[in-house]
Amino acid sequence: MIINNLDEMRDFAKQFSSSLRKNDFINLIGDMGAGKTTFTGFLCENFAIYDSSSPTFALVNIYEGDILIYHLDLYRLDDPDELLDIDYETYFYPQDAITIIEWAENAGDFLPDGMINLEIKKLDGEKREVSIANDSIRGREINEYLGN
Predict the structure, then answer these.
(1) What is the pTM assigned to this prediction?
(2) For 112, which DSSP code?
(3) CB 88, CB 23: distance < 8 Å
(4) pLDDT tens digits for range 107-118
(5) How far apart are alpha carbons 40 and 110 in whole angstroms?
């Protein structure tokens, strides 16, 4: 799906968020500057969370709104074993919450099965290509819900 501007990204985040449920784990894939954190902010707005930001330096941000959202940014993680210091199971297997993760590849073998893999590719200007992989049951369900 091609997203032409921020308004369309906000609309997509609204549609996507309506397909989510507690215990979902969303892996945002994309290069630096692709719009992962912007997308997360738009998604959070749909759960009455208006103060989300990148947890690059904190590793984890916790947002409370209509639902609890864990937002992890593993960009600065040097070794997957560092996850043992943050009680990663709470975030990787959320109970009554949704987890959004950026730079998940830095987590190595700690990642849970069944993630929703959403990729954002920067094209020109504000234009982005967004796709949800069909490599998990939830990914397929969400694609079906969105008509993809």
Answers:
(1) 0.91
(2) P
(3) no
(4) 999 999 999 999
(5) 22
